[in-house]
Amino acid sequence: DGTYNLNIDVEGCFENGTSIEIKSAGKDPVINATLLPEKGIRLENLIVDEWTAETPNLYEITIVLSKDGKEVEAIRTYFGFKDVEIFGEVFLFNGKPIKFKGVNHHDTHMTKGYAMSLEDMELDIQLMKEYNCNAVRTSHYPPDPAFLTMCDMYGLYVVDEADIETHGFYAVPHTTYNPNRLSNDPSWATHYLDRVKRMYLRDKNHPSITMWSLGNESGGYKCQDVCYEFLKNANPEIPVHYEGAIRSKRWAYDVVSRMYGTPDLMRKILNGTAGSKYRGKPFFQCEYAHAMG
Q1: What positions carry a catalytic annotation?
Q2: Residue 12 CA: distances (Å) to CA of 61, 65, 76, 94, 259
Q3: pLDDT tens, residue by residue, 166-222
Q4: Cα separation of 239 and 180, whole Å?
Q5: Residue 180: other Cβ atoms inside 10 A
Q6: Could you tell me the domains of the chain?
Q7: Using CA atoms in the order 142, 146, 151, 157, what is the torsion angle rounded to 10 degrees?
């Protein structure tokens, strides 16, 4: 409806006379607003070109920190307008149903290993677009921030995954097999939450962020519940994914997810015979056709 809320968190100690000025340029609408630290503003009657994977419309924004009318610091960045919503079993982006057709991506190169350059990342994204992908899951950790910026620019729906994976501890030597060994132990919750918080705070302003993921193959669920609660309090609009939830009798988080679901299972999900835990939420096949290098 053209109404948007803008909140800016600034670290540091501020005295009277400190203000933050917001300026947008290069594209209508032009925003000029001043706000006090820790005070948001409400922007109304804006007519904007919304961001999608097919139309990655970005707006340039400059944030100026001033003290007694004198500029202290200025930062220029880009942002986009979007709306993410789940209605029953349908995933809506800017009010329109979408289907994710994408890949999992590691920050690795076939000959250089972990030493990926910006050009390597951009080539990967260009290849995804050429193959008509519209989504990417950052398996199994938050990517280089430059990768997300390129997803904003080229247009890819991003499932940003926390750096949490514990399946190496499922069968610790001299103990019984237990996939929930760490994740169901509340004493580990602060460690899980630290990783999720850092991902959220670093990446939250990218318009390409379409879902958060609580990690990969880590069992559950007490530590994941703490992380889920944090993300939904921080920004309730962005759905949260965790494939491991499907392996229990409990409900998934905001989407129902599976790895390597067979074509027969897909047919059963479509005709409603796959079981109650596959109903009521959008289905997301987060991994398929695994290639080990």
Answers
A1: 217, 287
A2: 22, 12, 19, 35, 44
A3: 988 888 877 788 888 999 999 999 999 999 999 999 999 999 999 999 999 999 889
A4: 23
A5: 18
A6: 4-79 (2.60.40), 84-287 (3.20.20.80)
A7: 10
